[in-house]
Amino acid sequence: xxxxxxxxxxxxxxxxxxxxxxxxxxxxxxxxxxxxxxxxxxxxxxxxxxxxxxxxxxxxxxxxxxxxxxxxxxxxxxxxxxxxxxxxxxxxxxxxxxxxxxxxxxxxxxxxxxxxxxxxxxxxxxxxxxxxxxxxxxxxxxxxxxxxxxxxxxxxxxxxxxxxxxxxxxxxxxxxxxxxxxxxxxxxxxxxxxxxxxxxxxxxxxxxxxxxxxxxxxxxxxxxxxxxxxxxxxxxxxxxxxxxxxxxxxxxxxxxxxxxxxxxxxxxxxxxxxxxxxxxxxxxxxxxxxxxxxxxxxxxxxxxxxxxxxxxxxxxxxxxxxxxxxxxxxxxxxxxxxxxxx
Length: 342
What we know:
The protein contains nine helices and 18 strands. It folds into two domains: 5-62 and 175-334, ApbE-like domains (T-fold, Roll), CATH 3.10.520.10; 65-160, T-fold, CATH 1.10.3980.10. With 342 residues, it is of the alpha+beta class. Helix 1 (44-65) packs antiparallel against helix 6 (173-187). Helices cover 32% and strands 25% of the residues. Residues 1-18 have low confidence and may be disordered. A nine-stranded mixed beta sheet has the order 2-3-7-8-11-14-15-16-18. Strands 1-9-10-17 form a four-stranded antiparallel beta sheet, with no helix packed on it.
């Protein structure tokens, strides 16, 4: 059983730095995963100061958005469960409105309101037990149908008409943090960097004379399935069943729970998407979930809903399904991969 997300990262920096190369790298642990910031072409002192600011921002967001430890989000969840409203920060209002819009766009397949289900399956813990919840408890949560649209936001106060709503922004926070980190670095005049938060990666500029190259973790083997070059402002995100999961017999139960059934998705090993634009980070995180939940038959329609041209799904047999746009960018490391362009 794998109990920590940092055991296998979905994406990592492929090549190591030379001692002569002006590349500063620093790692940390936040959001329950390993994070790494790489800055190219700056003095060590300037790069170190910038990375320190980014790491502080990551810790601030971790403390603000934690779903089960004391945080602004957990305080809001407690108020909702008690049928009360809560005052929240201006930033939290913006996050909730954005997450609600993405949930609507995905037809509810991205649903941060199902934190109760995530907790029921035992994933609101750093260490979780290999125990399937009772079917009747799962059915109860599904029947209560918590949705982001159940939230009422009036100025700085948030409440829910459905007390079953329990917010879990684990599928949004890492992407949001990527966007915040990129904004902080650009504000400091740092235009060449790579930010990696547990497999959600954003590139700024280049690594000297060449683009940043990253690898996509193979969901069942050690090493990379494929690699690609990231352009300025692009982000890549992977959702996989190999990150947080437990086994009951031969059945794998991952933390990616289908909000329509109440059960973890089991017919997909991984989904990777490539995004760009001013919200590339958020989209790299949130927009992969609807594709994962939709499975082999529905992932292309889900990609269209989320305005994604570049996406890849690895099914339960290990077959790779990829859009033509992303296939052109990929270099497959595993030469035995079965690849279908769709």
